[in-house]
Amino acid sequence: MATASQDQGRRKRRISGYGEGSTEVVLSVDAVAEEAARLAAEAPSPEHLLHLAGGEAFLAIEELHAGYGRMEILHGLNLMVGKGQSLCLIGPNGAGKSTVLHSVFGFTTITGGVIRLGEKDITHLKPNEKLKDAGIAYILQDNSVFPDMTVEENLWMGGWLLDDAAEVRARAEEVFAKYPRLEKRRRQPASVLSGGERRLLEIARALIMRPEVLLVDEPSIGLEPRFIDMVFDILDDLQRAEGKTIVMVEQNARKGLEFADIGYVLVSGQLVKAASGDELLDDPDVGRLFLGG
């Protein structure tokens, strides 16, 4: 978990919106890929990953080989995050960041390695089993609300794996109590929501199944800066107040690392750097390649 000093440092460096840095240090996509590949020789050890996870991994990936069909995207990837921690994956386009989330949730072809949640091997569970039995929810990067359904009906859809309709409605009421902004719009179609409110609805819908782990793909994508701050505040509350474990991919690397306890840098389907979010923010290679400064 993050120390008090790390939390204080994160608050001091907190920014609004994108904060992408100056344009004076912009590198081409190819240059970023070449420079990032150079870092692969310094890949972190499993012992270092375990240390970052607080000495006990709640979600662990060991030597994972995964992809889509015959195309392997992840080549022996390791990942460890402790219970109640947050981890942000950054790296160039095509590095395999979203594939990590897809693999954890059961969307990829896994040809080697193991995924564990606590002591349980969840490598080959199907997505519905990951959600219902393992307590893992995946929040997609694409707009996944049903625009013609009401906000309330969208929440009910989050409980589609539950057999008891009354239980689904009761859980929806718990979510409405937590997020009054949605409760005020419960009878309105989701199409009237702002971009930030739709993102809130997507997160809230995932909570109906009471997951322990949230896989969050590009939470800031397509949002105005004021809504980006709102979404990250919501995720921060879920981690700090409710003890959710969060693994995210975030296009805005600075914002993601500000939020996360742990940061991983992926290149070509391999892990090349791992440190606390604050340490990666101060890393000159990471700053030059991914933070615009």
Give your account of this protein's structure.
- The protein has a single domain (4-14, 30-287), classed as Rossmann fold, CATH 3.40.50.300.
- The strands form two sheets. A six-stranded mixed beta sheet has the order 6-7-8-3-9-10, sandwiched between helices. The chain has a four-stranded antiparallel beta sheet with strand order 2-1-4-5.
- By secondary structure, the protein is of the alpha/beta class.
- Helix 6 (151-157) packs parallel to helix 9 (195-206) and helix 9 packs parallel to helix 10 (225-240).
- The model is unreliable at 1-6 and 8-26 (pLDDT under 50).
- The chain has 13 helices and ten strands.
- The longest helix has 16 residues, at 225-240.
- A hairpin with a 2-residue loop joins strand 1 and strand 2 (71-81).
- How is the main sheet built? 6 strands, mixed
Number of strand elements: 10
What CATH calls the topology is: Rossmann fold
Instruction: Count the domains.
Output: 1
**Low-pLDDT regions:** 1-6, 8-26
Tell me the CATH superfamily. P-loop containing nucleotide triphosphate hydrolases
Structural class: alpha/beta
Number of H- or I-type helical stretches: 13
Whole-number average pLDDT?
88
Name the helicity range. 25-40%
CATH level-1 class:
Alpha Beta
**Nearest-angstrom radius of gyration?**
19 Å
What would CATH call the architecture? Answer: 3-Layer(aba) Sandwich
Shape: globular
Biggest sheet, spatial arrangement of strands: 6-7-8-3-9-10
User: Approximately how much beta-strand content do the residues carry?
Assistant: 15-25%
